[in-house]
Write a structure and sequence with these properties.
The chain contains 18 helices and 18 strands. By secondary structure, the protein is α/β, with parallel strands linked by helices. It has 2 domains: 160 residues, Spore Coat Polysaccharide Biosynthesis Protein SpsA, Chain A, CATH 3.90.550; 253 residues, TIM Barrel (Alpha-Beta Barrel). The longest helix has 13 residues. The structure holds iron/sulfur cluster (SF4). The site of iron/sulfur cluster has 11 residues, from helix 15 and helix 18.
Length: 474
């Protein structure tokens, strides 16, 4: 069989030395050679050693078609994934050839151990399908094209004995978090077959940095939503620490992350919101999200429309005034509806959120019909009982087997009273750490102990009673 590999070369940390004096790009090249495959390097970077494409999937496939004349199967590698497992790749290739598959992939592993394998006929088909499509090439582009019409391909799937989806990481050097994580796994000689054992020995490898940070600017709210703990706890505090300094620290520390302004209260009640907008505009390496009830955004629309790194999530759980009042405890339906229309007209990246619970379920159909024209920007959020409220959930989404909490693995929550927790379940700061006594990095590392306990199936009461451990943000 005439098999070839292509390596897509990125412009991220794949040129930084990561292991034994070599950068990721070099490690990937060496692994491809060791498998015994002739290979071609494609990149959107100008460099005489790479075949240039414009960054889109179609352009990549066209360039492969033009430059690589003869092959039966093609393996797609990425330059920033140095953990490719040679044994797994060989096993995939063997199964692919023996079963005359069109497309072969591995499933139930974290991303980064294996390439995709495509035969020539399917390659030609994808080339045709992608014509006129300007989507940017990323790790899963080939798989996404196959999934458009999956029944017309013979797909071979290689799976591990134990499902490892719960680790839910991409082992790549695409950003600082991925770089640290991948480096530490390389140093521990991690492969697809010993990953679980190595992580069990040292779970904190999976917590190099947070990726999703929530800051509660206000625990005060101008509404009393029926599913929200606000009226039961009434903390009524405003964030009173130096927000600019905090965001600067986060920016330097993580280099790239999501920062969400939400919590138990309404963020636009923070009295210095103009300063928040200025910070958002300056920190272009951070993707900001504001989760709001949408009552107070009118005066900020002109400024918000200029911001590219911002997403608004507006909570509206009804399609008419009366139902809205029943749910939100306020008469603000018209204001919020008008503000949503303003935000959309001004091209602000806006999502509408509906919390599904016993009290709101009857309004779901009306909500979907009302906002049908932006149906790809609707978030149906599960009910959260915050570990102390009545159980009002309408569907049980929890996986059958419990695994270590994803929020603890990836998230941080900074409350208006300046405590750091993994999540906003921690209303009484039972697992939270006082940030006036520790730096944010020290507090994050201190949570390693709790994460390790999760891997040992030992949970403090708040985690034991929690139904949010499987919620994955971004
Ligand atoms: S299990 Fe629940 S309470 Fe515990 S850290 Fe995760 S989200 Fe928070």
């Amino acid at each position: 069989m005439n098999n070839i590999a292509i390596i897509v070369k990125y412009n991220n940390l794949d040129d930084e030395v990561i292991y034994e004096g070599k950068p990721s790009f070099q490690i990937v090249e060496e692994k491809v050679k060791e498998i015994g495959l002739p290979y071609y390097i494609f990149s959107s970077i100008d460099n005489k050693n790479f075949i240039k494409f414009d960054g889109t999937v179609n352009s990549l496939l066209k360039q492969i078609d033009f430059n690589v004349k003869s092959f039966n199967n093609i393996l797609f590698f990425n330059s920033d994934m140095p953990l490719y497992d040679i044994n797994l790749v060989k096993k995939m290739l063997k199964e692919h050839e023996e079963n005359l598959a069109d497309f072969t992939l591995s499933e139930n592993y974290p991303e980064g151990f294996s390439p995709f394998i495509l035969n020539r006929a399917s390659f030609k088909k994808l080339l045709l399908i992608s014509t006129g499509n300007n989507s940017i090439y990323s790790y899963n582009s080939i798989k996404s094209l196959i999934e458009l019409d999956i029944n017309s391909y013979d797909v071979e799937i290689i799976s591990p004995d134990i499902d490892m989806r719960f680790i839910r990481e991409t082992f790549s050097t695409k950003n600082k978090r991925g770089y640290i994580l991948t480096k530490s796994l390389l140093e521990k000689n991690v492969t697809s077959s010993n990953l679980l054992d190595k992580i069990r020995e040292n779970p904190n490898l999976l917590r190099p940095l947070p990726i999703y940070i929530t800051i509660e600017l206000s625990s005060y709210c101008n509404q009393k939503c029926i599913f929200c703990p606000y009226s039961k706890i009434k903390k009524d505090k405003l964030f009173s620490h130096n927000l600019e300094k905090l965001i600067n620290e986060i920016s330097i520390w993580t280099e790239e992350c999501f920062v969400e302004f939400s919590g138990i209260g309404e963020p636009f009640l923070y009295p210095e919101f103009d300063k928040v907008i200025k910070i958002i505009m300056e920190k272009t390496n951070i993707n900001f999200i504001i989760e709001t009830n949408g009552t107070l955004i009118e005066k900020y629309i002109e400024k918000l429309r200029e911001i590219k790194n911002l997403t608004l999530i507006i909570s509206i759980n009804a399609d008419n005034k009366q139902d809205y009042k029943n749910i939100h405890g306020s008469d603000d339906f018209d204001i919020v509806e008008t503000n949503i229309e303003r935000a959309i007209k001004n091209n602000i990246n806006t999502y509408l959120q509906f919390v599904r619970c016993k009290d709101t379920e009857q309004y779901l159909e009306g909500f979907i019909k009302r906002w049908d024209f932006i149906k790809d920007k609707i978030i149906l959020k599960k009910y959260n009982d915050f570990c102390f409220m009545e159980d009002k959930k309408v569907v049980d989404l929890a996986p059958l087997n419990r695994f270590p909490c994803w929020k603890l693995q990836r998230n941080l929550y900074i409350s208006s009273d300046y405590y750091l927790s993994p999540c906003y379940q921690d209303i009484k700061n039972s697992i939270g750490i006082d940030l006036s006594k520790k730096t944010i990095q020290e507090a994050w590392e201190e949570l390693n102990n709790l994460y390790k306990k999760h891997w040992e199936n030992s949970y403090p009461d708040i985690c034991k009673n929690c139904d949010e451990w499987y919620i994955f943000d971004m």
